[in-house]
Amino acid sequence: MTLSTLAEKAGVAKAQIYRVVSGQSSPSLDWIGRLARGLDVDAITLLTPSIELPSGPVASGYATMSH
Fold it and tell me: Which domains does the chain have, with CATH numbers?
């Protein structure tokens, strides 16, 4: 989805999305709700921190234990 499409679906300005994503502005709860509707997700999805999965041997199931 393009930024223009998201802005149109959410009913917000492209510049507003850019400012929030770049950390120049903090969104209101109403704005987050509008963006969530534009993305077709629950607002809680946007408010929940994402979990970064570790990379390397442990993440791929090949962890070894040394004795």
Answer: 3-47 (1.10.260.40)
- Overall pTM surpassing 0.90 (yes/no): no
- CA gap 45, 50 in Å, rounded: 9
The answer to whether 40 and 33 are in contact (CB under 8 A) is no
d(CA 57, CA 29): 40
pLDDT at 60 over 80: no
User: Number of C-alpha atoms within 13 angstroms, CB side, residue 8?
Assistant: 5
The stretches of the chain forming alpha helices (DSSP H) are 3-10, 14-21, 29-39, 43-47
